[in-house]
Amino acid sequence: METFEVLKNFRIIMSRAKPRHDENFYIMPDSSPPPFLDSIDRTILDILQAEGRISNAELARQINLSPPACHARLKRLEDLGYIQQYTALLNADQLGYDILCFVNVSLQQHTMQQVEQFRKQIQAMPEVLECYHITGEFDYLLKVIIRNRKDLERFIVDKLTPLPGVARIYTSLALTVVKATTAIPIPSPKE
Hints:
alpha+beta; Arc Repressor Mutant, subunit A; Alpha-Beta Plaits; 3 domains; four-stranded antiparallel β-sheet; 6 helices; 37% helix; 18% strand
C-alpha cells in the first residue's frame, strides 16, 4: 500500500473518531464492526472445534504458518472472544447416564423476582445441562441428563415441581440422538 493510501485511510478513520476530553488522542466509535476473520482464522476455528487438544505446532503445520505466528493468531481469537473456553466432552453412557430429556416449564407469574429466583435455582441443578428462555406455550426449555427413571421422577417431583412459581411441567424423553454437535458453522465473509 502506498504512503498516500495509508494517510488517506488514516484520515478517514480519524474523521470517524471521537476526541477524548482534554487529551490529544482519539477513541474509535463504539459501533465499529466486529474484527475481520480471514480464511486462516476460520480454518483455525474449524480445526479447534474438531480437535480441541491439538498442539500449537500441529495446528501451525496444518495451516502452513510458523508456530509463533499461529500462537499469535490463536491468542488474538481468544482475546477477541471467538474462543470462549477449552473443554472435554464426556461419554454419558460410560458415566451411567441413560436418559436425556427435554423439560418444558411454565411459570405462574413473570415478575422479575420470580424469574430471577427460578433461574438461580436451575443454575444450581447439575442435572440441567442447558436452560433456555423461550417463546411459545412454555417459558423455559431445559436439557436434562438423568441416570434412570427413578432419578427422573425424583428430579421432577422433588426438585423441579416444588420451585416457587412453577405452573406447568412437560417432559419429553429422547429415544435416539440423531445429531449432537458443539461445532458452530463459521460463516465466510460473503455470508
